Amino acid sequence: MTITRADADQRDAALALIVATQSSPRTACAYLGTEADGVRAELDDLDTPWQETLRVAVEPSGRVVGAVLHDADPEETMRSWIHGPWTVDEQTWSAYAVPLVRAALDQLPPGVEQHELSAAPAHTGMARLAADLGWHATGLSIAYQATTATAHRWPADAPDARVATPAELPAISALHDAAFPGTYATARQLLADEARSTLVLGHDGEVTGYASGEIQADGAGYLDFLAIAPERRGRGLAPGLLAAISRELLARSSQGTVNLVVDEMNAAAVALYEGFGYVRDAELLGYRSWPQPQASGGSFA
Ligand SMILES: CC(C)(COP(=O)(O)OP(=O)(O)OC[C@H]1O[C@@H](n2cnc3c(N)ncnc32)[C@H](O)[C@@H]1OP(=O)(O)O)[C@@H](O)C(=O)NCCC(=O)NCCS
Question: Please, what are the domains in the chain?
Fold first, then answer.
C-alpha cells in the first residue's frame, strides 16, 4: 500500500469513496455534508483546492482504499482542518488512518501548527484515531437547523440590528475574541468576507452584540457566531439579533435552511435556539492537536 498524490483516475475513485463514506455518521467527517451533490460543492468551495491536498492510499492492484485532504489558514489563525480520513473498511482504517492524517499534515504550509478533525460520536474510529495521534476531544456539540416553516415563530428583528461597518471592527473583535477564543476565523476575516452577513446591535458607535453567518456551497445557511456583550447579557437582547440574522440567512439560502452548531454545555445558547424552534439535527465531536482554550461565555464547535 502506498500513500500518494492522486492522478485524475485516483481523484475520481477518491471522490466516489468520499461521497459513499459521508452518507453515514459512523464514517463521515463533520466538515462536509452527507448528500453527494453537496459534498462535491463543499469540496470545490474550500480555500485550499482539494485536488491539490488530496492524498490517497492505493493498493498494489491500483485500487484506491483511502483518502484524506485538508483546508488550512496560513495567514491569520494558522490552523488546519483535516477532512476525512475516509477508508473502504475498518481494517484499512486501522492500518492507514494515522498514516493518511500524517500525509495531510506533511504538506501543510509552514507555521500551520494547530490541527483539527471532527465527526459524530458514532464515528468511533475517529475517536481511536485522535487518541493514537495524541489529540484532545472537545465537548459534545449539537447541530441545529431552522427552516422557513419555523420562521413565523420568531419575534421581530431588533430595530437597531444593522450591517457591521469596518469602523466597528475593534468593538466586534473584542466581543468575538472573548466569546470564541481560538476559533477558526478572526473578526477581521468575518468583516472582510463580502459573501458573509455580519450584523451588529447598538447605537452611537457602541456595539452591544454581533452575529455573523454565510451561505455554504450546498446552499444551506450557516450561523457561525452570535454574542451579546457580557455586561448586556440577560436583558432580552439576543432574540432580536437572532431573528435578524436568521431571517437574513434564510432569505439567502436556496435550501431554505439555517444551521448552527453549539456546545451542549452552553445552556443559555441552547435555550435561546430551542426557544426559536431550531431543531436538533446531529451531534459532533471535535478532536484538536492542542488543548482547548477557555471561552468566557460558550462557543461554537
Ligand atoms: C447566548 C447569548 C447570546 C444569550 O444572550 P443574552 O443577552 O444573555 O440572552 P437574553 O437575555 O436575550 O435571553 C434570551 C433567551 O436566551 C436564553 N437564555 C439567556 N440566558 C440564559 C441562561 N443563563 N440560562 C438559560 N437560558 C438563558 C433564554 O431562552 C432567554 O429567553 P427567556 O428570557 O424568554 O427565557 C449570550 O449568553 C452570549 O453572548 N454568550 C456568549 C457567546 C455564545 O455563547 N454565543 C452562542 C454560541 S452557540
Answer: 2-134 (3.40.630.30), 143-288 (3.40.630.30)
